[in-house]
Write a structure and sequence with these properties.
12 strands, about 240 residues, signal, binds 2-acetamido-2-deoxy-beta-D-glucopyranose, two-stranded antiparallel sheet, Dickkopf N-terminal cysteine-rich domain-containing protein
């Protein structure tokens, strides 16, 4: 880590000595470069290393939404040289600033309440997005929740409304309804074979039906017992 930081120092010094920092394309700089810029007056301080500490890979507790970060005592609006100087843990170009919520713009992790700035937006740390937080992948949300139209929301129990498998506690969304796998008896309505009880499949008229044994009639392989294939309308080995 230290070696990498030292390797970046010439860059930081060049940028720091330039009066055109704001004209630089932020996209050319990494989060860490940004921290170095913010800390440029004190870049030799050991505290800088603390700023570069990586976020702990989150436990999937449903109550955790804010990742611990180094913080100080300076109030928003007062001067700072590094994020750890600020009560908010966010130093932006020499001034302590409040942190922003998921979905808001950012240029480094320290800007975000979630401590994860990805592609210029604050996003939850993996597995820590609580209900209502902006997301664009379900693994950003806590265990037991998922990304529903860009916001983390809790998964739905069987019988509830859904639009994708990950939105159901059972992991099965069928016909916009969360279902338990293997829960429909023969003759019951289905749209997927996984809904039907063991040794049955979702057949014609969307009804669960018994699978055929070797030599039995079929129109698709799902309709044949394990290990058999449907060919020429018969289940064959
Ligand atoms: C959101 O998803 C899009 C495409 O799926 C991806 O390009 C983008 O990087 C994602 N943004 C975040 C912040 O994860
Ligand atoms: C930050 O968010 C991105 C995009 O969702 C994700 O790939 C990355 O793992 C997250 N970082 C952490 C530390 O969880
Ligand atoms: C899908 O659900 C609707 C009502 O929610 C129902 O009328 C329809 O029969 C269902 N389709 C199947 C294939 O189960």
């Amino acid at each position: 880590m230290r070696v990498t930081l030292l390797a970046l120092l010439p860059l930081a010094m060049v940028i720091a000595s330039s009066s055109k920092v704001n004209a630089l394309n932020m996209g050319d700089l990494t989060q860490e470069d940004m921290e170095i810029l913010d800390a440029r007056n004190h870049w030799f301080e050991r505290d800088l290393y603390a700023e570069r500490r990586s976020v702990p890979s989150g436990p999937t507790s449903t109550s955790v939404s804010v990742v611990p970060r180094p913080t100080g005592t300076s109030a928003p609006g007062t001067g700072c040289t590094k994020s750890a100087d600020c009560g908010t843990g966010n130093c932006e170009r020499g001034v302590c600033k409040p942190v922003v919520s998921t979905g808001a713009q950012c240029y480094k992790n320290a800007n975000c309440a979630s401590f994860n700035c990805t592609n210029g937006k604050c996003v939850p740390v993996k597995g820590q997005g609580v209900k209502g937080e902006t997301c664009n992948a379900s693994d950003q949300c806590t265990a037991g929740s998922f990304c529903e139209y860009s916001k983390c929301n809790v998964k739905v129990a069987s019988g509830g409304v859904c639009y994708k498998d990950v939105g159901c506690t059972s992991g099965n969304c069928v016909n916009k309804t969360c279902i338990e796998p293997a829960s429909v008896s023969r003759g019951g309505r289905c749209t997927k074979t996984l809904q039907c009880k063991t040794n049955s499949y979702c057949g014609t008229n969307n009804r669960c039906a018994a699978k055929a044994n070797k030599g039995g009639a079929c129109y698709k392989t799902e309709g044949c017992a394990a290990g058999l294939t449907c060919r020429k309308k018969k289940c064959r080995a």
